[in-house]
Design goal:
Elements: H1 2-10, E1 17-24, H2 28-36, E2 40-43, E3 59-63, H3 70-80, E4 84-89, H4 95-99, E5 103-106, E6 114-117, H5 120-125, H6 128-133, H7 137-143, E7 148-151, E8 153-158, E9 183-186, E10 196-199, E11 205-209
Parallel strand pairs: 1-2, 1-3, 3-4, 9-11
Antiparallel strand pairs: 4-8, 5-8, 6-7, 10-11
The structure holds S-adenosylmethionine.
S-adenosylmethionine is lined by residues 21-23, 27-29, 43, 47, 63-66.
Length: 211
């Protein structure tokens, strides 16, 4: 879905090389990417490979990076003028995405969010005291729904087909933004390609207006 609905229509596949610095050659996402592009470079063990941009003539980045690194990655690619489409948590979109020209955000319906395993199970399994003394703890937490959490997701991008600004905004319950000084302002209607999105200098809000 990520490739079909977001990556391909964005126009980013026009670049010679598609760098996927967080997906190894066995990952499902890399496999999908190879169906859309002839020259996809996966993660090969170097944790700095998301920064190795000078090795390529005409490179764009597409991936599902760790959410904890999203803002750093996006800011770096804006600064270096590298086109990218990244899958990210929509809990906290940084303001610089809205401020940057030719940047945009796509939401699929995020009202329910997507389940993510957030690593609790791994920590428990690594703790021999807990696993020995509380052998059923993982099953119990799982039964309570505590091993996964729901996160609204979106896609951030900086891309080459400038007609593709905001595709669809269909969420019904808004969680963004988390910081108190940033606001989203909606007036009406359905938000699609023809919608206008801008940051109002006076009230500091992001406005999305359907046309
Ligand atoms: C959200 S997952 C996505 C995985 C991949 N896109 C897939 O579909 O299988 C992000 C991955 O990046 C890895 N990772 C974290 N920091 C990294 C880094 N600096 N360089 C490369 N991979 C990293 C994590 O271990 C994790 O497997």
């Amino acid at each position: 879905m990520f490739f079909e609905k977001v990556v391909e229509p964005s126009g980013i596949l026009q670049h010679d090389t598609l760098l996927m610095p967080f997906s190894n050659s066995e990952s499902p996402l890399y496999n999908v990417a190879t169906k859309y592009h002839e020259n996809v470079v996966p993660f090969e063990g170097n944790h700095e490979s998301w920064l190795l941009l000078d090795n390529y003539q005409d490179v764009a980045v597409v991936d599902n990076p760790p959410f904890s690194m999203s803002a750093k990655i996006e800011q770096t690619y804006f600064d270096k003028r590298i086109p990218f489409v990244l899958f990210r948590s929509a809990v906290a979109y940084p303001k610089f995405i809205f401020k940057t020209k030719r940047a945009g955000v796509i939401y699929e319906n995020s009202a329910k969010g997507v389940d993510f395993v957030w690593g609790l199970e791994k920590h428990i399994k690594n703790d021999s005291y807990i696993t020995e003394n509380y052998p059923n703890i993982i099953d119990n937490i799982k039964a309570m729904g505590g091993l996964e959490k729901r996160i609204p997701v979106g896609f951030s991008f900086y891309k080459t087909n400038y007609d593709f600004k905001v595709k669809t905004v269909t969420f019904s319950r808004l969680k963004y933004p988390s910081k108190k000084d940033i606001f989203l302002y909606f007036n009406r209607g359905v938000f699609d390609e023809s919608s206008t999105i801008y940051e109002d200098e006076e009230d500091g809000r992001i406005h999305i207006i359907s046309n």
